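RECORD CONTENTS
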Amino acid sequence: MKISTLSIGDELICGEVVDTNASHIAGKLYDLGARVRRHLTVGDREDAIVLALEELSIDSDAVIVTGGLGPTPDDLTAAAAAQAAGRELELSQEALAHLASFAERLPGGLHPANRRQALVPAGSELIPNPVGTACGFILKLGSARLFFLPGVPSEMERMLEETVLPALAAPGREARLRVVLKLFGVSEAAVAATLEGCLPEGSPVELAYCVKFPEIHLILRSLARHEQSLQAAAAAVRERLAEFVFAEGEQTMDRALAALLKGSGLTLALAESCTGGMIAARITAEPGSSGYFLEGNVTYSNEAKTRMLQVPAELIASRGAVSAEVASAMASGARRAAGSDLALSVTGIAGPDGGTPEKPVGTVFVALADADGCRVNGYHFLGDRAAVRSITCFTALDWLRKHLLTLGAKD
């Protein structure tokens, strides 16, 4: 089956919003045993939407369209679909009933403008929306089936799963499998060199690289019939890159670390300077973090480091706030103040200002304190302020993850 996708919205072609819908749809179709043949993105212009629908319907069996089903004047998808199919827009009583039911759950009800979301091309089949106001619809254009979904990701994903994918599932089509290994602390070039010759010639397994800064994702794919080869290939890759693999599949760094902290029975405190609370935010985003995370200190100023963590003012004056010595004192001070088993600290120069020849922008120190003392690592990260802060956060979390793995191995 030839399947295409169409994303609609000025916010997409103006770069204001990242189109996550297209990648989500493509991934779900791949798991179903199908591949997206073509993808288009157009803005909120009725003539552009009509042309895109006509073009895609010519060489596609199915087209999945997202966006433009809202209540505002720039939501033109239903009108464009009707024009492309040579039909009139009609008020769907089923869609109106859905809007009325949805309004009962809202304190202020729905605005009258939402009524336009019940306008669909005559003869189209409604797609239920259990989590939003805009129902989708299915329309035939030539020999192609067109599935129209809202652009809101949470709504689109639910409707795709419950209606569109079952409609596109073909009896006898072989499913595709994939294994996603997530790496940190190694370059893409180094990964490629390490994996050279890892997959035997003629292997039915595909290997793809995807950089999602600061992570690298290795994606191994195969048809379901080759599952044994896929698992063998994944095992071989894990063995070669074991030091850098921190998670697999849907798991994240934060979830991997949360599982280790829960399993360890140890408590954690933080002292952050250049990351400004980013590490604490990631740790507390995971359910159950109150069981091991005690407190976090954002000691941005030198005075705060001294007042909250008892870092000696003379140490800061002599070594500098961004130094191995101060990072160590911050971690030790945080552990002492919280009474925690472990403490992480970070201090650095995120930029764009503040660097010196001795300590350029990107200079970062991370310290980890426990009952055996305190260890410090120094780094020089490249990139803008956001990149430096992001990789600093990830580096600290990964170090803690590896430390907990080491403790588990000793047990």
Remarks:
- DSSP finds 14 helices and 17 strands in the chain.
- The longest helix spans residues 385-410.
- The chain has a mean pLDDT of 96.
